[in-house]
């Protein structure tokens, strides 16, 4: 992920999560193989402070013990891009572990009210890899 070490250091020790959302870009290009127009994509990255709630499956067979509930706040930038919607997924490194973060808005709040407090985020984090090397 391309969040600079300086930015991360500015928010230490709170910035424990790096999130990279892939969103539709503003440009259109032509696929040289098919001639079809395709929308470009871009990556929008965030530094956040997220609290993880461990799964409470107690080793039950068939339970996914790699999925955590998360809640916290965005640090940099402080607001979500409007192209990021409920259910959007991001590549993530949280507490040094690689995985996938899925954004879940508070469903009991209407969208207009949520836009005023976008700084607060919540979702699920599924660990995919071990600790990060960098």
CATH topology: Thrombin, subunit H
Which percent range describes the beta-strand content? over 45%
| Secondary structure category | mainly beta
Total domain count = 1
Mean pLDDT: 80
Q: Please trace the helix and strand order, writing H or E for each element.
A: HEEEEEHE
Rg, nearest Å: 17 Å
Unreliable spans are none
| Total of DSSP H or I helical runs spanning 4+ residues | 2
CATH architecture assignment name: Beta Barrel
Beta strands, count: 6
Description of the molecule:
This protein is mainly beta and 134 residues long. The chain has a single domain, classed as Thrombin, subunit H. 9% of the residues lie in helices and 49% in strands. It has a six-stranded antiparallel beta barrel with strand order 1-2-3-6-5-4. Strand 4 and strand 5 (97-103) form a beta hairpin.
Topology:
Layout: H1 5-10, E1 17-30, E2 37-53, E3 67-76, E4 89-94, E5 97-103, H2 111-116, E6 120-131
Antiparallel strand pairs: 1-2, 1-4, 2-3, 3-6, 4-5, 5-6
Q: Which labels suit this protein?
A:
single chain; 134 residues; mainly beta; Thrombin, subunit H; 6-stranded antiparallel β-barrel; 2 helices; 49% strand
């Amino acid at each position: 992920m391309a969040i600079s070490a300086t930015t991360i250091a500015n928010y230490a020790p709170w910035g424990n999560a790096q999130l990279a959302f892939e969103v539709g870009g503003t440009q259109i290009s032509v696929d040289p193989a098919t001639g079809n127009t395709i929308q470009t994509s871009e990556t929008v990255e965030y530094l956040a402070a997220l609290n993880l709630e461990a799964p409470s499956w107690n080793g039950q067979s068939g339970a996914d013990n790699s999925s955590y509930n998360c809640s916290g706040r965005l640090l940099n930038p402080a607001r979500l891009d409007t192209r990021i919607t409920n259910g959007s997924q991001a590549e993530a490194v949280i507490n040094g572990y690689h995985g996938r973060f899925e954004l879940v808005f508070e469903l009991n709040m209407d969208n207009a009210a949520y836009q005023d407090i976008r700084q607060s985020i919540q979702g699920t984090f599924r660990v995919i890899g071990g600790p990060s090397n960098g």
